[in-house]
Amino acid sequence: MVGNEWINGYLEAILDSGAATVAEDHHHHHHRPAAAAASPKKKRGGHHFDPGHFNPTKYFVEEVVSGVDEHDLHRTWIMVVATRDSRERSARLENMCWRIWHLARKKKQMEWEDFQRKEKHRWEQEQGRKDATEDLPEDFSEGGRGDTIGEMVQCETPRIKLQRNLSDNLQVWSDENKGKRLYIVLISLHGLVRGENMELGRDSDTGGQVKYVVELARALSMMPGVYRVDLFTRQISSPEVDWSYGEPTEMLASGSYEGDGTGESAGAYIIRIPCGPRNKYLRKELLWPHIPEFVDGSLAHILNMSRVLGEQIGGGCPVWPYVIHGHYADAGDSAALLSGALNVPMVLTGHSLGRNKLEQLIKQGRQSKEDINATYKIVRRIEAEELSLDAAELVITSTKQEIEEQWGLYDGFNVKLEKVLRARNRKGVDCHGRHMPRMVVIPPGMDFSNVVVQEDTAEADGDLVGDGEQMAMPSIISDVMRFFTNPHKPMILALSRPDPKKNITTLVRAFGESRPLRELANLTLIMGNRDDIDEMSSGNASVLTTVLKLIDKYDLYGLVAYPKHHRQSDVPEIYRLAAKTKGVFINPALVEPFGLTLIEAAAHGLPMVATKNGGPVDIHQALNNGLLVDPHDQRAIADALLKLLADKNLWHECRKNGWRNIHLFSWPEHCRTYLTRVAACRIRHPQWQTDTPTGDMVIEESLGDSLKDVQESSLMLSIDGEKYSISSLRDKETEKGEPEVQDQVKHILNKIKRQIPEAKDADNSERQPDNSANSVNKYPLIRKRQKLFVIAIDSYNDQGGPDKRVLEVIQEVFKVVRSDSEMSKNSGFALSTAMPISETLELMKSGNIQAKDFDALICSSGSEMYYPGSQQCSEEDGKFCADPDFAKHIEYRWGHDGVKRTIEKLMNFQDGQGGNRSENSSRVVELDLRSTNDHCVSFLIKDPTKAKRVDDLRQKLRMRGLRCHLMYCRNSKRLQVIPLLASRSQALRYLFVRWGLNIANMYIIAGEKGDTDHEELLSGSHKTVIMKGIVAKGSEELLRKAGSYQREDTVPRESPLIVYTSNGLKSEEIMKALKEASKAASGM
Fold it and tell me: Which residues contact 329 (CB under 8 A, 6 or more apart)?
């Protein structure tokens, strides 16, 4: 078994011991510990295992050899081998046998539980699909002609296949789009990301994805019609890593076209956004609670850049991102929030998927699901992937297998339902709010700039290094060649990490056991970089140790090379060496998600032998440059290698085919297909009423550190509203003599001068009777605020009505803020609540609080926005009306009636189908007409004990194609369902986008408990004050079912931006907390 050579030794030891030894062992069984003595008597499969009849050899062969991989047992076995006393050795052997038996039983139990879980999930998915199609009157389940998942109709030639891929009457992206000037945002959050000298392989977070996104950003910026590409990642200012990862910006490429009037900001850039602890490099599993802060920082950069680009190429109108593209689950989560805040399309690339990884880990049987989740935060990762599917317009995959076998495991994607909904959309038939993301296969691009395609001339089998080249020979070549007795033989090249999944040991066995292969070729294994095997991870160390043992076992010295180190720049040289010897590249992985190395090898003229599992199947169909094999069949591996190496005509044919078709995997081809697909999405962006002023808004106090110091990097000057002064700007103007810079500074100075009188008026209005009952402003005052205090206290009585403590908190916060001249300067207030506007106004009236004391009222759990005292949200009869722009903003993918019908079925009927409720059984929910509006479906909870948890209910809605945001609120007495793009936290981001009030200048006042969306409000770049002892009971008990992710996966355990008050409601405590939060934020 791969990675477990010690088990073979253990098996041989048991066989050598014979029946007499086993009998002797059982004779001494009374010396064993009680637990060990009792274990053989346990029932298994209906039979008793009696010590006298238990055959450890048979059991080991049948049940254990193929299933156990436990390093702890390996260490024990080493001790057993070292034991000389035969009786002690036998006792240890028997104890190991029972331990392995216990592990095998545990593994089988976990496999059974996993099987039951998958069967239940499969049944629920099918039930959800049937339920969804029942609500769709017309049946278009067959779809259109050639309408297959991902449009992957396999065809005769790669060119026809590409054309079929774009067969939806799509116009292929071309030079005719040069005038579009698009702004594209990519996000790759974890790992160490930089443009040059990438530290690939430094850790598990810095691998192929980093190289992929950097090259994608560069390639997209060179396409016609693309003006600027920003690659967002986390800023890391830690002594653990190089200083370059702390730089706010890094230019990757300048604009691609000359003489077309492009401005300074054209090209591709890495934008690093600070989030989480500034001085620590965090592995990806620890980044989850810091994602909201990353989103807020990214939003600040995008808003500033949209204005900069508007000045350069937009005629003064903001240039919004054409698309926001998230890579991996964490970036997908971030992209979903950003695209929702900006109302622009989202694209997702999963790279590797959580559900697939969870399946693999469970199959190993070494960890329970709870242990796996504690290590990898796998449940939080899966939920992020589901959220990404909710928001994504397009999901890009590398292979068809990824769509069918990996994304098919998710609640948010169903192959059959996706085809039905797509067919209805094509025919213009209403889907009642149901949606499935579009999956398309676009293989990753490759940079072939360093590849020189050679003519297939008859090459001499002489020196590998020509005359005069000896001195210039790369060091990696000499490192490899020193291993070989005859370096002129064809080279079999394998390049991968020493991971058990890469199946390197099977390759070495195949080579060692095939005499013709050994005589014909050499084997080169490039297995990452290492200094000391003992310092490597246990899995990698086990593979390397096994490889070394196999080399010794088959006496492969002089035939196998395994250098300890290589640089990324050495890889092309290794490919060239293998091609010059007329060698073969092999990827024998058990499963290969895609196989970039196969494309690299083909570009350098190397035929391939590859696993038949995963992405290599699609690569082989496109390139037709080698053979596919079963990775478990070492004889098949040896035969395929021999066939390619021995048949020179076949070798040359595969080489030519690879070169002929390799352009299909080039970056220009990838980007052309990418932009063609993105252009087919429903392009949308923020749209406000035309009569709303935008040019006279107060400049944001801060637009993100990522935009400072970047004039050289083609980013325009940004202004900090709290720190700027006229004299400082004039100093900058004097220092910089360039005309363009002077023009920019003069332009900003003029804007500031125009705004100064308005700002003074706004400041005076705080002390004038601006908030009187008779005063009505044409536009909301919030557009002039520099700070906003948001009161989000979810305190309700047993009936779900507002508790009087809410009024007390409001009055105390007003008192505290207005008592401090610095704090009250240009400050406003907002109330965020689950109540509808009618109940909110009644509450304020009962406490003699004027609605106009608030600049904004966020009602119905974030589905409605009101601006008291403004004409925009006031009707002729004096009633409030909701912000119509916000209503349009959150309308996307909202199916009011479909959600209402489905929730009633799922909650009130046992089977969720509307036909399994007895006449005497009570309803769990009923519609709350008073709280329901166009963008909020509210239900009264009649029986909380039977209410489904939020994550369970959300899962069932996803399986039915319904994408929405739901929460229990008001002391678990209401269930409210609102649009996907709506929430109380997203409403604050809307205020930032709409009115320019930076989230970093907001203060959230909340309780320790609250509605089930309470956690979403706590983390981010805003300051949060949590008041202890104010909220007696929240709705959190209905948030998650057992086995779900926990609060610490969404809210940081320790953050300088989150402060607590002492128990009780005291003005001095609130003031202390607000100042503490402000001081902490200024020190970050």
Answer: 350, 353, 354, 381, 382, 384, 385, 388
Helices (H), 766-874: 804-819, 821-824, 837-846
- Alpha carbons 153 and 160: distance in angstroms, whole number: 10
Q: List for the chain the helix, strand, coil content (%; round to 5).
A: 45, 15, 40
Question: For 894, which DSSP code?
Answer: -
Give CA–CA dist 497/351, Å, rounded.
17
To 10 degrees, the CA torsion angle through 807, 809, 815, 818? -100
The whole-angstrom distance between residue 40's C-alpha and the CA centroid of its chain comes to: 46
Q: List, for the chain, all residue ranges whose pLDDT scores fall below the cut of 50.
A: 1-4, 15, 17-54, 59, 61-69, 139-156, 159, 162-164, 257-261, 458-462, 467-470, 690, 694-738, 752-773, 918-920
Mean pLDDT of the chain, nearest integer: 80
Secondary element (H or E) of residue 990 = helix 984-995
CA dist 214 to 209, 220, 270, 401, 744, Å? 9, 10, 8, 25, 30
- Please give the pLDDT value at position 233: 97
Phi and psi angles of residue 974, each rounded to the nearest 5 degrees, phi first: -135, 145
Of 577, 590, 619, 385, the C-alpha closest to 492 is 577
Task: Specify the residue for token string 């010295």.
Answer: 557
184: enclosing H helix or E strand: strand 182-187
> Using CA of residue 187, residue 189, residue 195, residue 198, what is the dihedral sign?
negative
Q: Give me the residues paired with residue 526 across strands.
A: 495
> pLDDT tens-digit profile of 652-663?
999 999 998 888
Cα separation of 201 and 789, whole Å? 45
CA separation for the pair 135, 902 (Å, rounded)? 9
User: Pairing between strand 964-969 and 1002-1007?
Assistant: unpaired
**Distance from C-alpha of 193 to C-alpha of 352, rounded to nearest angstrom:** 18
Q: Which residues contact 661 (CB under 8 A, 6 or more apart)?
A: 158, 622, 623, 624, 625
Residues with Cβ within 8 Å of 609's Cβ and at least 6 positions away in sequence, in order, are 584, 585, 586, 587, 588, 626, 627, 628, 629, 637, 640, 641, 644
Contact 926, 1017 (CB under 8 A): no
Beta strands in 208-314 (DSSP E): 226-234, 249-253, 267-273
Torsion sign (Cα): 633, 639, 645, 648: negative
- 3 state SS for 671-721: HHHHHHHHHCCCCCCCCCCCCCCCCCCCCCCCCCHHHCCCCCCCCCCCCCC
pTM: 0.78
Give, to the nearest 10 degrees, the angle between helix 616-623 and helix 648-661. 100
**Measured CA distances, 896 to 105, 413, 963 (Å):** 49, 21, 11
| C-alpha atoms less than 13 angstroms from C-alpha of 520 in its C-beta half-sphere | 19
Range list of β-strands (E), 204-287: 226-234, 249-253, 267-273
Q: Are 842 and 913 in contact (CB under 8 A)?
A: no
CA atoms within 13 A on the CB side of 577: 25
Q: Which residues contact 569 (CB under 8 A, 6 or more apart)?
A: none
CA distance 1077 to 1045: 28
CA distance 385 to 774: 50
Q: From the CB of residue 1064, how many other CB atoms can be counted at a distance below 10 Å? A: 10
